[in-house]
Protein 1
Amino acid sequence: MVTMRDVAQRAGVSIATVSFLLNDTKPVTAATRARIEQAMLELGYRRNVVARALASKRTRIIAMAYPALEHKFGMSTAEFFTSAAEAARGQDYHLVLWPVGNDGVELRELLGQGLVDGVVLMEVQLDDPRIDVLRQAATPFALIGRTTNLDGLAHVDIDFDTTVENAVKHLYDLGHRELALISGDLNDPRFHEYGPWVRTEQAYRRVVASYGLPEVVVPCSDTTQAGKAAAERVLADHPETTAILVLNEYAALGVVSGLRRAGHDIPSDYSVLALLMVPETAAMTDPELTMMRTPGPELGQLGTEALLLQLDGNAPPPPQLVPAKLLPGATVAGPRARRPKAGAGRRGERKARS
């Protein structure tokens, strides 16, 4: 069995120096660290994580709390996880995923076991009960997302205002004047205070009003089938629409399918722009979706770094908002004049939610 003494002899340092490194109790120089780690690799030495945690009072493990029962995993979500894990690994931490509910009950139970040094909170609600749980447990944390009251909260998030402004401007500059947003369903109890959906819809209403365009908002849950149904509603209730913005990535796939199933060409008849998506998902449709590319890699890294700074006794960085960026595909073009169907027209109040 390989011991610390063996590692110390191979690296040419004292046993105490090896202990300092393994237990993170005192700093060692980069050159000494490299010699010790090389010796451990050559000898096949395995760190005792439990002993290290007891000695340093830190586990070197952080958790990403994700409400998996309320929010589906998607390719966009995976980017947050992987970039957060890379940022943690770069600072000699391990990242674990905690699929806990939004109510904070499971989170409280897990925090009580002392398994992690800190938490990165995802899928943040405007009034998120998990924050009180973290504060009561005195556990350092950072948010990828925003609550309504942000006093004293380290956070990063998507810049929804800029994202929506750039998306609408792109369509407007191409000549579109009849837009529809297929948004999230805020009547769904899982999402009625879900920050991204609320902020996106608020931004859309503000931006189209600034352009003097009518407001058309169609609620839609986070499934492909719901996207198909939402597309049917736009066709039936707002046939004058020429461009559709879609918030949820699963719904966007359904919108394209629904329009094509109804016999419409994309983008000749309707342009479709996904507001938050990653290239892998966009490539699933034919034609490939034009999208606002979700800044998952940036936010996963920034949110994790904000937590790690606190764990090292430093002040967290200032809040950062990162907009999604336009990534051209093949589902957006200038509007083509369409002959209205007999009897077709606007149905219902344009200013109200559809």
Note: Confidence is low (pLDDT under 50) at residues 339-354.
Protein 2
Amino acid sequence: MDSLVERLASVQVSSLCDADKGLPVVDSAVRALLPGSRVVGPAFTVVAHDDHLPVLVALRLAEPGAVLVVATDGHRRAVSGELFATEARRRGLAGIVVDGYCRDVSGLRTVGLPVYARGSTPMAGTTRDAGTLGDPVRIGGVEVSSGDLVIGDDDGLVIAPAERLAAAVAAAEGIEAAERALLRGMAGGRALPSMTNLDEHLAALAEHRDTALRFTL
């Protein structure tokens, strides 16, 4: 698992999605609150309905390297903020994903832990509902079980079982190698279309033949 996490940390989410176009992509409204964030790690699932007590308990139980994945089921109060992000960083967690709201965005910038959410609100939840930990949850339209791998960057989040991502990572690495070659070509003055089979692809489309746009480097 550690080697897979390391490999996933080196590729973009978009490359994984190109490698496996059926990967479960979280609703794009759940986004990085800190631009430039990148998160990779196994999910530790939490249900918190306008109450941050479950998240506090999860911070004590989650293993280092885990990503707290918090379902709020449409509730609107903040269930995490600067203190929780600070504790998550202290304990070695990889990040926090909330299908809902956080607060203390200025403090989150200082902490630097990757935090993904639908947005921020100053109104915090209560501390009276213990919620549930470790059960399957639905996050941004994606079904998530504890132990599924979370991969996120500025483009968005993918959450899937490790074996699904293991099957896609080599192709994603290949896609990024090809894209680096294309960038080098353009830096050297070559036109992007000239490094693809664009004309052949267009001709095949016009004739209703099976075809795919490819890099030709």
Note: The helical segments are 2-9, 13-19, 53-61, 82-90, 105-111, 162-187, 198-206.
Protein 3
Amino acid sequence: MFRTAFAALSTAVLLSATPILAQETVEPVFGEYLQPLGLGPFQDATWTGYEQEGWFVLQNTTQPTAIRYYEMPLMNADGTLTLRANVYARNDDGEGVAATGLLYDFGDEYSTYIAFLLTADNQLMAINRDVEEMDVIYGDADDPVGRGDGSDVLEVRISGTQARMYLNDQHFRNYDLSHRPFHDRAGIIAVGTGRLGFWGLSAQ
């Protein structure tokens, strides 16, 4: 059951049209948590990226179906990975979806992935983008919610073909990744319009 009708409607709007995808491949980031991403400022037809007091912010004011992500090879040789990022999402105009989070199981051939995101209204969502479709899961009423003050930490703990997702150390969902070849690439993702911020990314 979706947390709100608005959330379901917003996602329907996002997925009813072909998403405008922008992908960047960047260097791997391993090591301690809250390591700055070091991504430089840029501007294209849809997105503006900039640094603000240590945050890397992606801003989109025009395209409600826009998705931008940065991916990199991050899996450890033993098939385990803990992926973390400090995130926030602001929806300046109150329309559509604004969400930010982690990307994993990224398949370069067809741009398939699983995303774990926090929305501007502090709800959790997960997107499974397969070869043919995008499946979206929202949190239920008893799932964790974000604080919205910039202190929210998203985490994905991957071991073998199991991925467990957490917000501020509170469990959200598990994904069984055995239904298709698991890919070793992961990163960050921004969805929709608004200001979508990342403090840092760690992969351990």
Note: The chain has one domain: 5-203.
Protein 4
Amino acid sequence: MRAEALNSMSSRVQALFRALGPWPIRDKEIAFILSLFVLLSGSVVEMNVGDEATRLTAFQALQKMALPSVITAVVVFLTLRLGRTLLARFTGYQRLIYFSTAVLLGSLIVPMRWLLIDIFDVRLNSGLADGFPLFWVSGLMYLAINASMGRSTAKLAAEVERTQTLLHELEGQRTKIVDAQEQVRKEIATYLHDGLQSQLVVLGLQMRNSIKNLPADQAAIANSFIEEIEHIRRVDVRKASQQLSPDLQQISVATAIRDIADRYSPEVKVAIGIDSAVQSPALPERTKLALYRIAEQVILNAAAHGQARNVWLSIASQGDCFDFQIANDGHPLIHPQQPGGGAAIISSWVDYLDGSWSLTQEAGQHVLFKATLNLPVLDSRG
């Protein structure tokens, strides 16, 4: 039982020492607090010791103790800065250096008090033994400030790391959602292009075969239906397939964005100006898709929510990045918009291109979407 009690006590002592340090040494903070302690305690003594004739006013006492407190701050700061330097250089002896710095600080404070009393005639007992409690005060202050600030900083760092981890996880989930959306779009587009078109072709052939024996007037009506089905197959189904998942290996970004503009014509006029570097065949397909989806979503918002009649889109190379702007003359913004919230799709694609974006109300009453995208500036000749 006695051995267990000794082991338990030893464990508690070790835990206490671990709690006390080593922590990062807060040289500036401790120097400031100790100098403030000297300033205030010395001023109080000067205001209360002696007879009425020799007592100082508060202002006079602060004036007298100002220089001693500054000297204290300098000495404490240099002592602790030495400890910080040694901690950084001799990493294998951090615990020894850390606690030795506390002893060194207390050992300097006591004679420094005596010197300040002698030089500045501060009305305190001048014996070294009378100032010995300062050894413990300064040492404990050193340990307490470093430990409290160190633990707080460690907790804050842990929270920041946890928040960053959650943000990375959220970003990963958002990327997965966008990828899943693209996959669904692609599957539907493939079905429209291959499956539905084939079925419409077969339907048209079957209808043509079934009307061969009909009277001429009935055959003409049936042929008009067949032509309408054929138009839907050749134009509408292909267009829907292209809009769902544009084949950016075969067409340029500019062509794909012009197809977006055609959807809203003539209700919304979209003026497009795109740098030749963006139209380079060497631009990765995923990057082209990102530019396409950003343009698609911003123009949709301008038309559907802003009731815009005119939209101006431009993508221009600016050094190592691209300046992507889309202005519209729709309803003014009530509040300036920032990434996030309902703009998750835009944010996801802008983040993919390692960029940033904003939506603001310009002085000329235009709503302006602006993004800076880190894209490689490629030769338009490929």
Note: The longest strand covers residues 310-318.
